[in-house]
Design brief:
113 residues, three-stranded antiparallel beta sheet, three-stranded mixed beta sheet, alpha+beta, hypothetical protein PF0899 fold, binds zinc ion
Length: 113
Amino acid sequence: MHEMSLAEGIRTIVEEQARRHGFARVKLLRLEIGRFAGVEKSALAFAWEIAMRGSPAEGAELEMLDLPGKALCYECMETVEIDDRLAPCPRCGGGRLIPQSGDEMRVRDMEVE
Ligand SMILES: [Zn+2]
């Protein structure tokens, strides 16, 4: 389950931040997840509970925010938002889209104490 390794990656980030900034506990963590990141949210929520045990983020709330997929259209040279990697350009209907973003996952911010 790749959500478990994602959750462990977040735990590493949390522990580094806690050391650097000297906080003891995370109350809330906001995570941005790209539309094409292939993250199963329910699986990640489950993995989160397990991976954070014994870390500063144990019991913290996890908020998952969607990031839209973006692509550059070679027909109209606009950056457009797409729901599907194989979808045509929503602006001009062109089929030559170069994905720009949407497969990333990152910690946006945390509420700590
Ligand atoms: Zn276009």
